[in-house]
Amino acid sequence: LTKTPHLYAIGPGENLRSELLVWDGGVQESRVSDGEAQIAIISDARAVFLVYAYVPKWQSVVVPSSVKTSAQLLSWVKTAADKAGLSSEHPFPFLLSGTVEQADYHIVDTPSDGTPFTREKHDKHKWHATLRDADVEMLGFYSEKHAGVFVHHSSPAHLHVRSKDGKVMGHLDGFIPGKRMILMLPAQG
């Protein structure tokens, strides 16, 4: 997939032992080692599943200061996409950049112990952490029609977050937007 320029992708890593983020073709992996998150730039990766898009050009929109919660933000993302000529009837990628008051994220770290994989096992083996007052970048995929496929049943979007300093990356569970955020949507034409 990375041979084609401008790849953006997210998903859980091979054997549910890491989180993957591909940002403009660069592959980043976060995994847990000795109880700590380890972030690495890698040249190849395998994923359990990967949601991806090739986006050569983005258009920016300032997130209004009236947006105070992640639910409000996702609702606004849908509206902004429709106004930008993207139909929210179809899945689309988006980027968010700026400051978050708080971002809760996890890295999946499911042991290969031979037991059947279940939702409970998946939830039990998540390494959780929180960023506070941090400058971040997020890659998300929005869809109201793919619950349980590449978005969770409780949200119309699947997002991964990374700190701008590159020290933190994982699957975003929830967040409180900060004062300055920019939404980027695929540019049309």
Task: Describe the 3D structure.
With 189 residues, the chain is mostly beta strands. It contains two helices and ten strands; from the N terminus they run ββββββαβαβββ. It is 11% helix and 50% strand. The protein has a five-stranded antiparallel β-sheet with strand order 4-3-2-1-5, with no helix packed on it. A hairpin with a 2-residue loop joins strand 3 (26-33) and strand 4 (36-42). The longest helix is centred in the middle third of the chain and has 14 residues, at 70-83. The radius of gyration is 16 Å and the shape is globular.
Which helices and strands appear, and what pairs or packs with what?
Layout: E1 7-12, E2 19-23, E3 26-33, E4 36-42, E5 51-54, E6 58-62, H1 70-83, E7 92-108, H2 119-124, E8 126-142, E9 157-163, E10 169-186
Antiparallel strand pairs: 1-2, 1-5, 2-3, 3-4, 6-10, 7-8, 7-10, 8-9, 9-10
Biggest sheet strand line-up: 4-3-2-1-5
Number of strands: 10
Percent range of helical residues:
10-25%
Distance between the termini: 22 Å
Taking pLDDT < 50 over at least 5 consecutive residues as the criterion, the unreliable ranges are: none
The structural class is: mainly beta
- The SSE string, one letter per element, is EEEEEEHEHEEE
Beta content:
over 45%
Q: So what's the overall shape?
A: globular
> Cα-atom Rg, whole angstroms?
16 Å
Overall residue-averaged pLDDT value: 87
Main beta sheet: 5 strands, antiparallel
Tally of separate helices:
2
Gist?
By secondary structure, the protein is mainly β. It has helices at residues 70-83, 119-124, and strands spanning 7-12, 19-23, 26-33, 36-42, 51-54, 58-62, 92-108, 126-142, 157-163, 169-186.
